[in-house]
């Protein structure tokens, strides 16, 4: 199988988390910004655990300083994805990072990102949509502000709202209002849960937030009743196996629950999360799934169909990627 050319639908990719280290170093040079501790001696992102990953991520983001930088980044990321065989991608962006939560700035960032997405579609055929996220460890007030900005810019390109960041911070209930604002505006909803924290985190998310998908969600496997609920309610998991291995959620691919979840009837999809941080990309994820679980062209077709049905896009776009 040619891992680069087999068509792929990706639903879980953080824009800044997809920035190649060289891209961040180039911007740092252009702006004369020092980035102490961000890179290791080989030039890769330096981090050892999830908390440090989030700190390195935030430090690397400090060189992304305006709509133009983000437009350049989106263009580079989409070109890479297209080269990896991705035909449709959903990219997480964040009002807290794009303009620090300011309404006018957010509009300018989103315009630059939209332009990059349109240009990548014209030049590389890849279709992209954006999911705006709040950052859990920035607190409920910042999340509500992010939700209001997202609600005000919901449309063809900005189609979803979600939450990333430190899963151990606060409680899901604190974010009910933010998600209600976003859902009310017609944005479709996903949220990170069951990555760093266990099944209870997924259960709370289902209980309190209007999600149709969950970012990761893999630790639901620790509770068979919850697995059954995910299957019965057809809650789609955005699974990122390579990310989970890199962050030591599981110690090896063979121990990853994606196959068990799939066997239990949970709709699973496959994405990369933050590829250069986790030393992965879509072709590598597919190759490992083939090697470890024996997934073949038919399995990949099935998970891509699941992803296309769960995509936050209009029906016309959906019909084009199926
Ligand atoms: N998990 C949670 N938040 C994030 C991640 C992640 O993998 N990447 C960027 N923000
Ligand atoms: Zn993520």
From TrEMBL:
The keyword Zinc applies. It comes from Algicella marina. Pfam families: A_deaminase (PF00962). Transmembrane segments: none annotated. Keywords: Hydrolase, Metal-binding, Zinc. Its cofactor is Zn(2+). GO terms for molecular function: deaminase activity; hydrolase activity, acting on carbon-nitrogen (but not peptide) bonds, in cyclic amidines; metal ion binding. The keyword Transport does not apply. SUPFAM superfamilies: Metallo-dependent hydrolases. InterPro entries: A_deaminase_dom, Ado/ade_deaminase, Metal_Hydrolase. Belongs to the metallo-dependent hydrolases superfamily. Adenosine and AMP deaminases family. It comes from the Bacteria. Its EC number is 3.5.4.4. Residues 7-322 form the Adenosine deaminase domain. This is Adenosine deaminase.
